[in-house]
Design goal:
By secondary structure, this protein is mainly alpha-helical. Helix content is about 75%, strand content about 0%. The chain has one domain.
């Protein structure tokens, strides 16, 4: 193998690591509550198939990352092959940013006093397969800038694919490590979703304000966010900012309420075919049967 190609692959692995620090934190936080001693609950129709895959996938937390790894390879590979389309269609950044904003608000929002529903949908409340889908979508959203940066390193597609593939593999191992670290430092879960919010804002600024956030700046913001979260957890005097943080969390919940309202027509259209199928399968309601009045003579007390 040519030395220049080795250098390119090394650069891509390093670049993937620099750009994926937030990705590692978020994916680790998303799967951290899944049990690592319980097998996947497969649907009845797929139970035999799932039992055969158990040795390959492992228990739920490990399986979520391994399935996510396969999805990351497929999604990132497709995006690299279609890199020109990704670069010349900035609306993809907007879609990715909106999804990341929704993910952040779902996990950072907090109900105001007296509210029963904060319009938040934290990851902990989702099922295993819902989390796997959320992991895949988050990885695709994070990958937009990574793909643009990767194709700028070299025009040799096979070298780019190999370098990115090795980088993704290392990042998935790091995400597994981070999921265990979250159990020791629960504040890191909140920090991870702040990183999601950071990336969403960066994507919007790049698209609408033509602000180019450098790789070094992005890495610095990610590390700074994690360090600040750890300091907040261990330094009591920093809790003087609690009222401001609660105010922000309630604001995120209010924004999420607007999100939910705006997405209702879209969700309704997506669910429409399923509802039509359910209605077609529903048994017809039987017509009421007229009951003849009792013809027996009534017994009256004399």
């Amino acid at each position: 193998m040519d030395l220049s190609v080795v250098v390119i692959i090394g650069q891509l692995i390093f670049l993937e690591g620099i750009l994926s620090i937030d990705n590692v934190a978020v994916l680790g936080a998303m799967v951290s509550h899944l049990p690592d001693d319980r097998a996947i609950m497969w649907p009845e129709a797929l139970r035999l198939f799932g039992e055969r895959l158990h040795g390959l996938l492992g228990n739920q937390r490990t399986a979520a990352l391994r399935v996510g790894l396969l999805g990351a390879y497929a999604g990132r590979g497709l995006m690299l092959v279609m890199a020109s389309f990704v670069i010349h269609n900035p609306w993809l950044r907007v879609i990715g940013a909106v999804y990341l904003l929704k993910l952040a608000f779902d996990n950072l929002g907090q109900a105001e006093p007296g509210e029963a529903d904060a319009h938040v949908h934290p990851t902990e409340a989702k099922s295993f397969w819902s989390i796997v889908i959320a992991v895949e979508l988050a990885d695709l959203a994070f990958s937009i800038d990574n793909v643009v940066a990767a194709v700028a390193v070299s025009d040799k597609l096979w070298a780019v694919l190999l370098g990115v593939a090795l980088g993704i593999l290392l990042m998935r191992f790091a995400a597994g490590w981070f999921s265990y670290l979250v159990q020791r430092e629960p504040v890191l879960k909140t920090a991870a979703y702040v990183l999601v919010l950071n990336i969403a804002v960066e994507l919007l600024l790049e698209n609408f304000a033509s602000l180019n956030v450098t790789d070094g700046a992005r890495f610095g913001v990610s590390i700074g966010t994690i360090v600040l979260a750890l300091l907040y957890a261990h330094l009591r005097w920093l809790h003087i900012f609690d009222p401001a943080l609660v105010w922000l969390a309630q604001g995120f919940a209010n924004f999420n309420e607007v999100f939910d309202w705006a997405l209702m027509p879209v969700i309704g259209l997506v669910k429409l075919p399923w509802r039509l199928v359910q209605l077609s399968r529903r048994d017809p309601v039987p017509e009421p049967v007229d009951v003849a009045p009792d013809s027996r003579p009534s017994i009256t007390k004399r």
